[in-house]
Amino acid sequence: MPVVIVRCDGNAAIGMGHVSRCLALAEELRDRQRSVPVFAMRGADSAGAAAVRAAAFEVVSIVADDGADYGGELRDLVSSRGAAAFVVDVRDALSRTSLDGLRQRGVRIVSIDDGTDRRLAAHLVFYPPAPQVQEMEWTGFAGRRYVGWEWVLIRREFSGARAFQASDAGSAESLALQESESPAIDILLTMGGSDPGGMTEFAIGALELLPMPLAVRVVVGPAFKRAEPLIDAIARSKHAVQIARAPASLAPLMRASRMALSSFGVSAFELAACGVPAVHVCLTDDHARSSAAFDREGAAVTVGVFGQVTAEQLADAVRRLMGGAGRRGQMAERAGQLNTSIKEEMRLKTYTCHT
User: Based on the domain organization, do 78 and 10 belong to the same domain?
Assistant: First the structure.
């Protein structure tokens, strides 16, 4: 069976999004393409490496210093494993020259959501529906480019949107659901696998500006390191806040939620695939531009960039979505329609090792 080297990282500094989408690809390659994915990662003890091992994949450590081009290390790894393909999903110093060297050895190069000139060395490049892709310089690119909802990598459990129930309906006067109603979670709060900037605590504080107590479920990722500030924020909250610590799957929580408050990233696509209306808070201007694709599709609301958005602005966005049952239903329906593009049966013939 062909070996595919998958290069990604996940830790408290960069989050877990790269690992999540690479695991989605690796599971498909292993289970349906009869390939053998091997992950090459920094930090043998990182949260990302732990997640990969938990999914029953081998992890090989990258030992070069952070900030250095480690093309020679990858060349040795690819050679020793007889790898037919190399998947790269990183934001580091790996150079185009290093990928050119692998390509010249007959290795098929696959690039995921890369804004650097490394992408020009790839046979195949994949991007979510983001306007930045068309603005990149593609001179010299001889591969194939795929951009759109259908090329978003999400794990299988997120396929299949929930139906928007009549019991989801609310009003501006009554934002909270009754105990007998469904879904059980008013707001799912998920700010990524690590949230080093404290977006979770900020969001909890913003929710205090809403008039009625709500059932809030806070997802804490495997690389989260801000337990004390989070506990303090929850202790001050009037809402019924529960923590879900590194759940085995987010899909059941998403489908049990009336709406979500999320940082923009892989979780934004997972929420859309589950048919859950969401408010996005973005880490960067670049993320805000990418999130705008959801806004244009009517599947989510982009509130702005963290650090530039006030608690009042965030609370107002949540209030308007919570109080508008019709709008929320339309967003859930549109998000569910996007799930027909974010396919369970990904077009993996494109990812195979064959030319």
Answer: yes
Residue 247 has pLDDT above 70, yes or no: yes
Give yes or no: residues 149 and 63 share one domain.
Answer: yes
Percent above pLDDT 70 for the chain: 87
In 51-153, at which residue ranges do the beta strands (DSSP E only) sit?
A: 58-61, 85-88, 108-112, 124-127, 144-147
191 shares its domain with 59:
no
Instruction: Report DSSP letters for 254-268, one per residue.
Output: HHTEEEEEEESSHHH
Domain check: are 134 and 216 in the same one? no
Q: Which two tokens stand for residue 52?
A: 């990969």
Domain count, the chain: 2
Quick one: average pLDDT of 51-67? 95
Query: What pLDDT is recorded for position 347?
Result: 42
At a CB cut-off of 8 Å and minimum separation 6, what does 9 contact? 18, 19, 41, 42, 43, 46, 48, 90, 92
**Which two structure tokens, joined as six digits, stand for 256?**
């049990």
| Amino acid (one-letter) located at 140 | G
Per-residue pLDDT at 178: 34
CB-hemisphere CA count at 13 Å for 185?
A: 23
Q: For residue 137, give its domain range.
A: 3-155+345-351
Of 272, 268, 231, which Cα lies nearest the Cα of 255?
Answer: 272
Contacts 24+ apart (CB under 8 A), 53-60: 55/23, 55/26, 55/27, 57/23, 57/26, 57/30
CA gap 189, 246 in Å, rounded: 13
Question: What does the pLDDT look like over 71-118, one tens digit per residue?
Answer: 999 999 999 999 999 999 999 999 999 999 999 999 999 999 999 999
**Residue for token digits 């909890």?**
204
Contacts of 269 (CB under 8 A, 6+ apart): 128, 152, 154, 342
Question: Do residues 10 and 105 both lie within one domain?
Answer: yes
Q: Are residues 133 and 238 in the same domain?
A: no
- In terms of domains, do 119 and 188 share one? no
Asked if residue 299 and residue 185 are part of one domain, the reply reads yes
Residue 20 has a CB neighbour count (10 Å cut-off) of: 24
Tokens of 303: 């509130």
Cβ atoms of 293 and 282 within 8 Å: the answer is: no
